[in-house]
């Protein structure tokens, strides 16, 4: 059979070693993700590392280093489709960016293992695990630090509650006041609520703002007839 004719013990042993390295290092990365209950956990990271390893190893067996380089380039771009599957938008927040980046790194670890670069694969694993664990206290400390509104970029929303009859006028007022304050709008929605009111929700283009400007805009809106309340909120949180 052709399979036995093309079988070479040394090549198979080399492939087996690469798969073992990818499995062990993928487990190290995935265990941390599983511990934190992320959407892509232990098995996903291990499978990504194993798949990348075997694709690169197969290409190198068929076409040498040139074939391995070509497959690595496909792994780099192709893993993005898998990473996109764990990224979710939750209101103004985006979840899964860190998990997607970790999958990308798991693929790099597997590619290194498949290219017989075990030391590089191990070094990358150490840095990935360190980034996801040792940097967490620093991230928490930065997130808790008070930051003035004009010093950070965020997504800002203005929400206005009004009567159904006055919704169109309220929408125009929101647009006019924000335009006068030189804050561009990326999206504005008009929604009917179960309580009989309508909500005008404007999302500003992500930029730095002065908190006082938004306070002034909402104060002017609340003073208008037919508007029961006007508030604004901001979000800068990226969840992994």
UniProtKB/TrEMBL annotation:
<dbReference type="Pfam" id="PF02308">
    <property type="entry name" value="MgtC"/>
</dbReference>
<dbReference type="Pfam" id="PF21770">
    <property type="entry name" value="MgtC_SapB_C"/>
</dbReference>
<comment type="function">
    <text>Virulence factor required for growth in low Mg(2+) medium and for intramacrophage survival. May be involved in regulating membrane potential by activating Na(+)/K(+)-ATPase.</text>
</comment>
<feature type="transmembrane region" description="Helical">
    <location>
        <begin position="71"/>
        <end position="88"/>
    </location>
</feature>
<keyword id="KW-0472">Membrane</keyword>
<comment type="similarity">
    <text>Belongs to the MgtC/SapB family.</text>
</comment>
<feature type="domain" description="MgtC-like C-terminal">
    <location>
        <begin position="156"/>
        <end position="232"/>
    </location>
</feature>
<dbReference type="InterPro" id="IPR048640">
    <property type="entry name" value="MgtC-like_C"/>
</dbReference>
<dbReference type="InterPro" id="IPR003416">
    <property type="entry name" value="MgtC/SapB/SrpB/YhiD_fam"/>
</dbReference>
<feature type="transmembrane region" description="Helical">
    <location>
        <begin position="12"/>
        <end position="30"/>
    </location>
</feature>
<keyword id="KW-0812">Transmembrane</keyword>
<keyword id="KW-1133">Transmembrane helix</keyword>
<feature type="domain" description="MgtC/SapB/SrpB/YhiD N-terminal">
    <location>
        <begin position="19"/>
        <end position="140"/>
    </location>
</feature>
<keyword id="KW-1003">Cell membrane</keyword>
<dbReference type="InterPro" id="IPR049177">
    <property type="entry name" value="MgtC_SapB_SrpB_YhiD_N"/>
</dbReference>
<keyword id="KW-0997">Cell inner membrane</keyword>
<dbReference type="GO" id="GO:0005886">
    <property type="term" value="C:plasma membrane"/>
</dbReference>
<protein>
    <recommendedName>
        <fullName>Protein MgtC</fullName>
    </recommendedName>
</protein>
